[in-house]
Amino acid sequence: MTMPSAIDTITIRRPDDWHVHLRDGAMLAAVLPFTAAQFARAIIMPNLTPPITTIEAARAYRERILAALPPGANFQPLMTCYLTDHTDPDEIAQGYAEGVWVAAKLYPAGATTNAHHGVTDLANIGGVLARMERIGMHLLIHGESTDPEVDIFDRESVFIERTLIGLLRAHPGLRIVLEHITTEGAADFVRAHANQCAATITPHHLLINRTSLFQGGLRPHLYCLPVAKRERHRLALRRAATSGDACFFLGTDTAPHPAGAKEAACGCAGCFVAPTALACYAQVFDEENALANLEKFASLNGPAWYGLPPNEARVTLRRATSRQPAEIALGDERVVIFRGDEPLAWSLS
Ligand code: DOR
Ligand code: ZN
After folding, report:
1. Taking the complete model, does pTM exceed 0.85, yes or no?
2. What residues make up the domain containing 97?
3. How far is the CA of 260 from the centre of ligand 2 (A)?
4. Which of 37, 154, 325, 341 lies at a C-alpha separation of 20 to 30 Å from 86?
5. Pairing of β 347-348 and β 197-201
6. Is residue 288 part of a domain?
């Protein structure tokens, strides 16, 4: 019997990253080159301090991102609006009409980093959601329950049951992206509601499970929200990402923090995955024998969902060991890279 020869190079349309935290100031300057080197466009998360809640703030942030790009970079930031209890539907609609933002982000208040200005009750943004539904503007959701009684590993599934199902029913025309899904139930839910719902999947949720967080000791750099779940969920996410299904696409959720803020008594959530993202995704698709679907996940499904053309440029990934540094410098601090200083089986040419 002859075995099929392994694929050693793959050329795909240039990918986009549909979920990125670029931060601001020195951190922005330090992390942006990694995202811009791999991705043509990225949806930029608005959870700065203070959050991006106005057209003016989004325009100014976009200008700061463009100014921080390395010379010759070809990268387009797609801005989002951070929803609060006080968001004005007119501001939302105007920013969308002017092309300042492409979507709005719903953080349930307190759900994650810089989410304390988020929405305390969906009833407070009923008018905003109705307007978004009318104008076709997408809603991006951090889908975790903030009920303190709910176990941290159940927060995504409880959010789906208690909040998302009702939200889809109340706004049947609203297009929703459930961000960084972490459970089999979320993948099944999105597939079953693919006319209205899509999901992004991160590299780290395809590579680690909740046991990884405690492998040989506490691993603060693997802690993010939603927190990684059991192995069976990781396997379900791999099936979803590599399926080629149009409702699943690439979103790294790269979320850099200074190492000191993570290696702390109360360390914050977020993995800095941008430098190794594409190599990690390629590894996963290769391990799942699904490299033929990598372009759909990385470069086609996202643009189709957002009604944008796919990128014309192509990139080539090779089966050749690459290695990123363990960390990058940030003034006196450092930012630790997910899978940094480890051999990666794939390289971006
Ligand atoms: O782990 C996370 N970090 N999850 C989020 O939702 C936010 C992000 C951040 O901004 O650091
Ligand atoms: Zn995020």
Report:
1. yes
2. 15-278
3. 20
4. 154
5. unpaired
6. no
**Residue 333 falls inside a structural domain:** no
The pLDDT value given to residue 18: 98
Q: What is the CATH number of the domain that holds 93?
A: 3.20.20.140
- Summarised one tens digit per residue, pLDDT across range 116-128 is 899 999 999 999 9
Q: Is residue 313 part of a domain?
A: no
Torsion, Cα of 129, 82, 117, 173 (10° steps):
20
- Asked whether residue 301 is assigned to any structural domain, the reply reads no
Tokens of 321: 């060991």
User: For 59-101, how does the pLDDT look when each residue is reduced to its tens digit (9 = 90+)?
Assistant: 999 999 999 999 999 999 999 999 999 999 999 999 999 999 9
Domain count, the chain: 1
Q: Whose structure tokens read 């969902």? A: 305
Q: Ligand 2 center to residue 146 CA distance, Å?
A: 16
Residue whose CB lies within 8 A of the most ligand 1 atoms, among 23, 112, 213, for a mutation test: 112
CA 324 centroid distance within chain: 21
In this predicted model, what pLDDT tens digit does every residue of 26-69 receive, in sequence order?
A: 999 999 999 999 999 999 999 999 999 999 999 999 999 999 99
Q: What does each C-alpha distance from 148 to 21, 110, 142, 158 come to in angstroms?
A: 26, 10, 16, 12
